[in-house]
Amino acid sequence: MIHATYELTKQFYISSNFCKNSPSNNNKEETMGTPLFIEVITLIAAYLLGSIPSGLLISWAFKLPDPREIGSETIGATNMLRLGDKRAAILTLLLDALKGSLAVIIALIVAPPLAQFACLLAVIGHIWPVWLGLKGGKGIATAFGAILILSWPLAIVCLVTWIAVAATTRYSSLASLTAVILSPLYTTVLNEDTLVMTCLGLACLIFWTHRSNIKRLITGKESQIGDTTLSQTPQD
Fold first, then answer.
1. Are 192 and 21 in contact (CB under 8 A)?
2. Is 222 in a helix, a strand, or coil?
C-alpha cells in the first residue's frame, strides 16, 4: 500500500509541470529508472540533513547558553542572536541554509525529479529534528538555502523582501512571513510556475512554526531584531 502510494505520488509529480523548471527536468528519462531504494534514501537523507541541529552544536562550540532554554526556545539563527554572539548567529544562519542547499543538490544528482520533495523534507527536518524530540527551528534559513538551488532568482527576490521588511519594522518574523506569503506570486512573475506548489508548502510550514509570533505581532508584544533579553518566555 505504501509502495503504491509513493509510486502514484512520484508519477504525478514527474508527469505534471510541477518540476519542469527544476534543473532536474533535462534528466527526466534517466531518473524515472532510478531504483526505489535510492529514491527513498535520497528523501531520508534530505530529512536527516535538515534535522542537523546547527544552532545547538554552535552554542556548544561557542560555550553559549542552551538556545532551547532562552527566548523562543528554538535553535534558529534569530534565537541564537539573542544569546548575544553575532558570530554564532551568522554561522547558524549559514549552516542552516547550507543544509537546505545540500539536500536539494544531492537530490538533483541522485534523483532529480525529487528535488522539490527534498526541499520540503529538509525544512521539515529542521522544524522537527529526530535528534531533539521533534523540536527544532522555524525553517526560514533552510528553506532559503533549498530555494537558492532550485531557483536563485526567486531566492534573491525573497531575500530582498525579507531585508526590506526587516529594515523597516525590525521584526524578523514579519519579514519571514511576508517573504513566504509573496513567494508563490513571485514564481509567476519570474516564470517559475512549477515552484508554486513547493512555495505554498513552505508557506504552510513556516506559518505553522510562526503561530505564536503572529499572535504577538497582533498584540504588539513581538520582540525585535537585536533584542538580546534572555527571557524564558518564548518570543521569536
1. yes
2. coil
Domain that residue 71 falls in: 2-219
Q: Is residue 109 in a domain?
A: yes
> Does 144 map to a domain?
yes
Q: Cell match 521569536: residue?
A: 236
Report yes or no on 232 lying in a domain: no
User: Which of 180, 81, 189 has its CA nearest to residue 140?
Assistant: 180
Going by C-beta distance under 8 Å and a sequence separation of 6 or more, which residues neighbour residue 25?
A: 19, 112
Q: What is the DSSP letter of 27?
A: G
Please enumerate in sequence order all residues whose Cβ is within 8 A of that of 158, keeping only pairs 6 or more positions apart, or say none: 144, 147, 179, 180, 182, 183, 186
Q: Name the phi and psi angles at 11, rounded to 5.
A: -65, -35
Counting the structural domains of the chain, the total is 1
Give the pLDDT of residue 227: 63
Whether the per-residue pLDDT at 229 is higher than 90: the answer is no
Q: What number is the average pLDDT over the span 73-78?
A: 76
pTM score of the predicted model:
0.78
C-alpha cell at 146: 533549498
Inform me whether the pLDDT recorded for 182 exceeds 50: yes
What is the average per-residue pLDDT within 100-115? 94
pLDDT in tens, 25-40: 444 444 455 788 889 9
Q: Bigger pLDDT: 136 or 44?
A: 44
206 contacts: CB under 8 Å, gap ≥ 6: 138, 139, 140, 143, 176, 177, 180
Q: Which residue has the cell 525553517?
A: 139
Residue 228 lies in a domain: no
The amino acid occupying position 103 is A
